[in-house]
Amino acid sequence: MHATLPLIVDTNFPSIQRTDLEILQVNLGYRCNQQCLHCHVNAGPNRKEMMDAETLGLIMTVLKMRQIGTLDLTGGAPELHDEFRLLVADARAEGIRVIDRCNLTILSEPGQEDLAEFLAGQQVEIIASLPCYSMKNVDQQRGAGVFDRSITGLNALNALGYGQEGSGLKLNLVFNPQGPSLPPDQQRLQADYKRNLYEHFGIEFNDLYALANMPIKRFGSTLISKGQFQGYIQLLKDNYQVANLEHVMCRSLISVDWQGYLYDCDFNQQLGLGMGRTTHAHLRDLLETDFVGESICVADHCFGCTAGQGSSCGGAL
Q1: Which one, of 23, 78, 31, lies nearest residue 56 by Cα?
Q2: For position 53, what pLDDT does the model report?
Q3: ∠ at Cα 265 (264, 269), nearest 5°?
Q4: Conformational region of residue 288, where left means phi above 0, alpha means psi within -120 to 50, and beta covers everything else
Q5: 27 Rama class: left (phi>0) / alpha (psi -120 to 50) / beta
Q6: Which region, left, alpha or beta, applies to residue 95 given φ > 0 means left and ψ of -120 to 50 means alpha?
Q7: Residue 158: phi, psi to the nearest 5?
């Protein structure tokens, strides 16, 4: 795999600083039942990295001490961690909003048959990957059969009340472009998704998040192989919008890797770019400081969050 960090670390991206910490985004490990081309964490079925019990035990302590309102769980497939359900239940018992970044096919994996019911019972907000409403495009990006299994998962979630008005169970979908291009207008694309998924499958959901692909890890390496890397970086730079700087997720979010180390965002985590002044800040350090006012570590990939309509864990900015 081609290294992308040397190609982006020399940057003219503007300096930005942290504000109040609102979201703790925790990567529970890289094991996943899928292996997608656009995956910036290189997750897959053969990855062994998973958060240990000692590190996991710090999460609730930090959430309560810092009065953090949202726990955002990601992976890999975070649901494959043995303690996923216990962590979710503990956080919900404290009134903390929990987000599960779900790939949908995990809902039909052996041993996970009751996962959808668990998530609904805990009122977990689901952000689910569905890069297109076309079977051909989804299977091309994520593997044969993924689209059909995703539709089955969405139908199961709808049956439990997810995406239904008045249920309180939020179901949001995520779109990624197929290649080195910016996402289309999020609102127009959302309308297309809602119409097509309802007309063909009877599926309803709350919101669509249109995310730009980051030129790092598996996707970045593919761009290098195809001679498209520098062109994509230039596309991101040419579409930079200064107004998006006020709303980038790294200002109010801290990303935690499976070992408990802290990063300004999930993308920096995969590049090994530690938070602000140190590459070794750990969950334990959040017991001493909230890092408000610290400078955020930036590189050229940050233009991916600020290009065009903007891109964050919550979609367009």
Answers
A1: 78
A2: 95
A3: 95
A4: alpha
A5: beta
A6: left
A7: -60, -40
In this structure, the chain runs to a length of: 317
Beta carbons within 8 Å of 258's beta carbon, 6+ residues apart: 27, 28, 29, 30, 49, 50, 51, 55
Enclosing H/E stretch for 174? strand 171-175
Question: What is the C-alpha separation between 245 and 86, in angstroms, rounded?
Answer: 36
CA 55 to chain centre: 20
Cβ atoms of 84 and 75 within 8 Å: the answer is no
Which is nearest to 172 in space by CA: 160, 159, 154, 185?
154
* The predicted structure's pLDDT at residue 311: 79
Measured in whole angstroms, how far is the alpha carbon of residue 62 from the centre of its chain? 21
Give the pairing of strands 97-102 and 125-129.
parallel
How many Å apart are CA 277 and CA 287, to the nearest integer? 17
Residues of the chain whose pLDDT is less than 70?
33-45, 134-144, 276-279, 316-317
| Residue pair 252/22 in contact by the 8 Å Cβ criterion | yes
Full-model pTM: 0.92
Q: Which helix (H) or strand (E) holds 198?
A: helix 186-201
d(CA 43, CA 258): 12
**Apex 103 CA angle, 98 and 104, nearest 5:** 95
- Residue type for 122, please? Q
How big is the chain by its Cα radius of gyration, in Å? 19
What does the alpha-carbon distance between residue 133 and residue 198 come to, in Å, rounded to a whole number?
Answer: 10
Q: Is 146 helix (H, G, I), strand (E, B) or coil?
A: helix
Sign of CA dihedral 63, 169, 269, 311: negative
User: Rounded to an integer, what distance in angstroms lies between the CA atom of residue 8 and that of residue 12?
Assistant: 10
Distance between CA 262 and CA 64 in Å, rounded?
Answer: 17
pLDDT at 159: 97
pLDDT for the residue numbered 223? 94
**Ordered structural domains, the chain, with CATH:** 19-214+245-294 (3.20.20.70)
